[in-house]
Amino acid sequence: MPQFRKDPVTSRWVIIGDSPDVVFGHEPNHKSSKTCPFCPGHENMTPPSILVHPKKGASSPADWQTRVIPNKFPALKIEDTPEKTSDGFYDRVGGFGAHEVIIENPDHYKEIPDLSEEEVEVVLKVYRERCLDLRKDPRLKYILIFKNYGPDAGASMEHPHSQLIALPIVPSRVQGEMKGAEKHTEYTERCLFCDMVHQEAAEKKLTVCSNDKFMAFTPFAARFPFETWVLPKNHEASFDTISDALLRPLAEILKAVLGKIKNSLKDPSYNFMIHTVPLDIKTSTSFHWHIEIIPHLTRVAGFELGTGFYYNPIPPELAAKNLRELT
Amino acid sequence: MPQFRKDPVTSRWVIIGDSPDVVFGHEPNHKSSKTCPFCPGHENMTPPSILVHPKKGASSPADWQTRVIPNKFPALKIEDTPEKTSDGFYDRVGGFGAHEVIIENPDHYKEIPDLSEEEVEVVLKVYRERCLDLRKDPRLKYILIFKNYGPDAGASMEHPHSQLIALPIVPSRVQGEMKGAEKHTEYTERCLFCDMVHQEAAEKKLTVCSNDKFMAFTPFAARFPFETWVLPKNHEASFDTISDALLRPLAEILKAVLGKIKNSLKDPSYNFMIHTVPLDIKTSTSFHWHIEIIPHLTRVAGFELGTGFYYNPIPPELAAKNLRELT
Questions:
Q1: Nearest CB neighbour to B144, from listed A268, A294, A303
Q2: For residue B80, what pLDDT is reported?
Q3: Of A75, A260, A285, B17, which sits with the fewest C-beta atoms within 10 Å of its C-beta?
Q4: pLDDT (0 to 100) of residue A45
Q5: Which residues of B touch A154 (CB under 8 A)?
């Protein structure tokens, strides 16, 4: 069974799998819709659906627009227990958690930039619905929604999909962000992310695009070339409390930004991750949910691994200009 | 000019380059020794040497075994100043530092497993010599020595080489490791890494190989499949104080481990990084220098980027067994 192990030096948690037979390779599987288990008509090749959102005007419940299934090769298992054990002075915790796959749409070849805004909105609505359902389990402490697109971003399936991992531990990365944001609020009584939005609204150096409700910009200290963040303009701590009124503007900006990245950078591999507050935090004046989009144009190498610093050869204001000016 | 920028959320430093014309691609350059600027006879294609270690029994000083040059496309520049400026509420620091390339040996096609132990020892001696020279500059706070081998590990040149980056800031990653190690020492009055060596000497579950002076093992919470650490068995805080007597045993174990990784995993890309104490720390009872070797078999994806957790499908004890049993 999978298990969490804690590195005693850094207190960093690692999920150790139980896949000794894993075959390493960077090419996604099922390149054709004929054999793809995520394509319509192949539903019996996957575990049963957790959630099905029907196609607009569908006559049959089998006619789905977006579908959520458990990951067939999960990093974590909901039937495991978060039991703590030791191995000498090392710590481990049972691999309890959830690992789901959100099949974004039925068409094997249609990624987010190719969908209608209405179709992207369904994907976002499904994200929210899964969060609201999983947060009922008090053993879960954090939910991460993310997408790996393309071989360089770790995608193992070609059919358009995103993933959800629910964890019994709040990740150190999230704790670090929460702490950093709180420090700013203690000092200024303002939200750090709202300050970013305001400074950028005035300076317009880092903006990729924006609408009434959301702003997309390259962060001042972007780790990766063309890294882009999408933030709600008004303060909101948690993604899963997003109102219906914000879903369409979010769909619009996500489709626009991913389209710009696709078209200006020759369809690169990318990841996006929704950064939100831990489940036991109801509201926060300092943390502000957002989406971080990371195109994979460079490799994380020895310098990054050895220091935790990043080296980004492209100034973010230049990346923003390139993306912004692309129509 | 390059500059350091601080992410206001995580306080993570990023080096922002000035290479807007960078061409993205993952294949190393100069695949043939005919055009390779690191090959003997092509010394005029690189900046002048900082250090040259002659070949054994060389008759001419041009007949080198290992050579150090400034990086032609440096992430940092020694002629820059570590001046602090702001951009609204964002912080930046001038891109002061050193970025050097260690050309490990003259032969374009000979990597560490293919060299003699004596030749590997020269590379390690040169690492030490560059550290001892650079630590004279009081503006430098940390030196990282690392190697990117192969396209998936971010190597941009094919000729066997490693790199050195000297920074005016102690990386957060290093601070975190120091703090974690100190916490263990406060509590136990022992060194955490020495404890790892002792527990492993008794249990022998994670050992890859060892000799009198060094132990190579897969860490209990390995982030990556086949990740391997090399530690001196006796407590030593800083790599650059390594005694002459330890250089040969280190060369022996590094050659052995990299050979095992090459042969058991189809010559994968890998990084290694020397983890050592910051320059202003003379001695430490809690930190213990070591080398971390990371083969690139999986991709860092959305889960890792979003949480700081890692997912490793291969249990480290199984990876160790595979490497150990390979002769």
A1: A303
A2: 85
A3: A285
A4: 93
A5: 298-302
Whole-model pTM? 0.94
Which of A5, A20, A221 minimises the CB distance to B314?
A20
The Cα-based distances of B295 to B147, B172, B208, B222 in angstroms read 11, 23, 14, 11
Q: Note the ipTM here.
A: 0.90
Quick check: B23 pLDDT over 80? no
Fold of B172-324: HIT family, subunit A (3.30.428)
Q: Could you give the CA distance from residue A82 to residue A98 in angstroms, rounded to a whole number?
A: 12
What is the DSSP annotation of A186-210? HHHSS-HHHHHHHHHHHH-SSEEEE
Mean pLDDT to the nearest integer, A76-102: 90
Give the residue carrying structure tokens 């004596």: B118
Interchain CB distance below 8 Å, A163 and B303: yes
Q: Where are the domains of chain B?
A: 3-167, 172-324
Sign of the alpha-carbon torsion through B258, B114, B105, A298: negative
pLDDT at B98 (0 to 100): 95
Residues of B in contact with A310 (CB under 8 A): 12, 14-15
Same fold? A3-167, A172-324: yes
User: pLDDT digit string (tens) for B101-147?
Assistant: 999 999 999 999 999 999 999 999 999 999 999 999 999 999 999 99
Task: Decide if domain B3-167 falls under CATH 3.30.428.10.
Answer: yes
